[in-house]
Amino acid sequence: MSVSKIPVVVETLLREIEERIRHLKTKQFTDEELLLLHSAFGAVLQRAFEVLEKYPTLEIYSTANNTRILIEIKGDNDRCYRVFPRINFCPCQAFKHQVLGKKAQVTCKHVLAARIALILDKIVENKITQDQYLMLLQSMFESED
Ligand SMILES: [Zn+2]
Fold first, then answer.
1. Per-residue pLDDT tens for 106-124?
2. Where is the SWIM-type domain positioned along the sequence (predicted)?
3. Distance in angstroms (rounded) separating the CA atoms of residues 41 and 7
4. Distance 103 CA to ligand 1 centre (A)
5. 50 CA distance to ligand 1 centroid (A)?
6. How far is the CA of 109 from the centre of ligand 1 (A)?
7. What pLDDT shows up at residue 143?
8. How much distance in Å is there from the Cα of 96 to the middle of ligand 1?
9. From ligand 1's centre to the CA of 92, what distance in Å?
10. How far is the CA of 79 from the centre of ligand 1 (A)?
């Protein structure tokens, strides 16, 4: 499995926004944050918002004490992708070609949509056991082409 790193400057931006929004009751980005996110992610930001428009809340699966977390994103063609909260990896084709291959994108729309959903608290939590987590993890890599 190949993992790419979100560049430090982009990760720092995400964390700053996350930190600001954490304490807010109404969780949303300011116009300035949207501009900053757009300059960091470009067209991928738009695609991530399209995902979140279609699926306003994402399912997350977490084990006891949130030690292990996976976020599920429904993709095109009824495919389903699972990503980790802070790891820049997705089994989708865009990640493989645009992020790891051409390095044309920082990340894919699934990873970014997952991160945005977490920041804005647009998630539905499902508690799972360690065994179930391992099964989800396994199925995630089976779906990799
Ligand atoms: Zn992806």
1. 999 999 999 999 999 999 9
2. 81-119
3. 11
4. 14
5. 13
6. 6
7. 56
8. 8
9. 4
10. 11
In this structure, the number of other CB atoms found within 10 A of the CB of residue 114 comes to 30
Q: How far apart are the C-alpha atoms of 99 and 109, rounded to whole Å?
A: 11
Locate tokens 């929004």: which residue?
21
State the distance from the centre of ligand 1 to the C-alpha of 83, rounded, in angstroms.
8
Q: What's the token pair of residue 141?
A: 């890599």
Residues 52-79: tens digit of each pLDDT: 999 999 999 999 988 999 999 998 777 8
SS (H, E, C) 35-55: HHHHHHHCHHHHHHHHHHHHC
Could you please report the per-residue DSSP string of 53-110?
Answer: HHSSSEEEEE-GGGSSEEEEEE-GGG-EEEE-SS-----SHHIIIIIIIS---SS-HH
∠ CA(125), CA(128), CA(130), 5° rounding?
A: 140
* Cα separations in angstroms, 113 against 39, 108, 134: 16, 9, 23
